[in-house]
Request: fold
Amino acid sequence: MDMKKMMKQAQKMQRDAARAQEEVAAMEFEASAGGGMVKVVAQGDMTIKAVTIDPDAIDPEDVDMLQDMVLAAVNEALRTAAEEANNRMNSVMGGMNLPF
Reply:
């Protein structure tokens, strides 16, 4: 294969990957736990944008349950964001297994 052509393809792939990363970073991913008692919105850049807790979930006698629901919702939102980022990058890279 022509080296110049390979370089152009690599540059295009790099631009497409950067665009995909920017798109995912701007996306939001919502997850909930406890039947919707706790909702979390994560952004594609792996930051948490919002946590919403239904007042009915607040039981001073069972703080552990609330903490578990928050943790579960946060982890699910971040897992979903990471999965979408991985899917986008895989589509840009044509299935090449490169670490990101």
Summary: The mean pLDDT is 89. Residues 63-92 form the longest helix (30 residues). The chain has two helices and three strands.
